[in-house]
Amino acid sequence: MQQINPIELSQWLNDAERESPILLDVRETGEYEICNIANSQLIPMNTIPHRFAELDEDATIVVICHHGMRSYQVASFLERQGFANVINLNGGIARWAEEVDLAMAKY
């Protein structure tokens, strides 16, 4: 399982020469509405088994949750489904708010 920390992801998203990954947020809707990374796609963890076909299995996907455990589980599930380029955001949105976007609301 690949991992990426928030600072590395931020640098990647700001690099115009690199194609941005799909940012897959697997938190619940209420959590997502409080704070999210721009351009992320919300598919709550409990709906992933029914909705993973909405994702491009050839794309690079960074999976996001609050602290990194739910996203790790979803990333593992996607890998078992044949997705080759899945990365877990280590520390999740909580660490993103601490290291990258200090103005982000916390919950």
TrEMBL record:
SMART domains: RHOD. This is Sulfurtransferase. The lineage of its organism: Bacteria, Pseudomonadati, Pseudomonadota, Betaproteobacteria, Neisseriales. Gene3D superfamilies: Rhodanese-like domain. Residues 17-105 form the Rhodanese domain. Pfam families: Rhodanese (PF00581).
